[in-house]
Amino acid sequence: MREKLKYHRLFKKYGNPRDNDTFSLLRSRCKKLIAEDYYVFVSSVESSLEHDIKNFWRFVNSKKDTNAIPQTMTYGNLVSSDQRGICELFSRYFGSVFDSSGVTADGETNGIPYKLDPVYLQPGTRDYKVNIPTLPQCVNREIGVTANICDEDVAPSGTIPEFNTLLVYRLGNYQHIGVVSITVYCH
Fold first, then answer.
1. Residues in contact with 124: Cβ distance below 8 Å, sequence separation at least 6, in sequence order
2. Mean pLDDT of the chain
3. I want to staple 22 with a disulfide (CB 3.0 to 4.6 A). Which of 7, 28, 43, 151 is the partner?
4. pTM of structure
5. 149-156: average pLDDT
6. Tens of pLDDT along 75-104?
7. 108 versus 65: which is more confidently predicted?
8. Which residues fall within 8 angstroms of residue 23, CB to CB, at 6 or more apart?
9. What are phi and psi of 142, to 5 degrees?
10. What number is the average pLDDT over the span 145-150?
11. Domain positions in the chain
12. What is the phi/psi pair of residue 98, to 5°?
């Protein structure tokens, strides 16, 4: 693995095709070894189930108690300790850097932005229709809208079939609260 990383760095630094060939060969070997080790691991777990089922359940139960959400989160001068607020802070932080989970209509985001109140996606519902209101602040009309959708596990997808409608499709385990942050851009 280290050698593979070494040749990858060399190729990126110098652009030598031989380094890339060596990296490709080492990468394929690593993938093969990982697949073989995974097969051996799964086989050993399956065979140990017959003899020591308590060990398996201890492992499963130990994984249930872990939570990837921090107790409190700080972003700038904002602090939150509830799941909704933490999700909103994550959305604000990553929304400024990485916007692929956002959905854009009309593609124009160079107008005056108006951030709407967050919409909370309740647990147990996979698909949502979110109405985007017409803003009285947009005297010369709305020219664009973006929506950042935050869920606890897998980022949901969304589409805007009409300017004032956002359809959210939750993926993964949708048993937690999700947050949609919508920004409307005025001309």
1. 174, 175
2. 79
3. 7
4. 0.45
5. 74
6. 777 788 887 788 777 777 776 444 444 455
7. 108
8. 4, 7, 8, 10, 11
9. -80, 140
10. 82
11. 2-64, 73-186
12. -135, 110
Q: What is the CA radius of gyration of the chain?
A: 23
Cα–Cα distance list, 147 to 7, 57, 64, 104 (Å): 41, 41, 32, 7
Indicate the DSSP class of residue 154. S
Amino acid at 162: E
> Alpha carbon of 121 to those of 26, 79, 149: distances in Å?
45, 21, 10
What is the rounded CA–CA span in Å between residue 79 and residue 126? 29
How many Å apart are CA 12 and CA 159, to the nearest integer? 37
Amino acid at 13: K
Q: Which pLDDT belongs to residue 36?
A: 92
C-alpha torsion sign, points 48, 53, 55, 61: positive
Q: Is the Cβ–Cβ distance between 176 and 121 less than 8 Å?
A: no
Residue 98 is predicted with a pLDDT of: 47
By CB neighbour count within 10 A (0-12 exposed, 13-18 middle, 19+ buried), where does 135 fall?
A: middle
Distance CA 106, CA 145 (A): 8
Does residue 68 carry a pLDDT above 80?
Answer: no
The two three-digit tokens of residue 11, written as one number: 């190729």
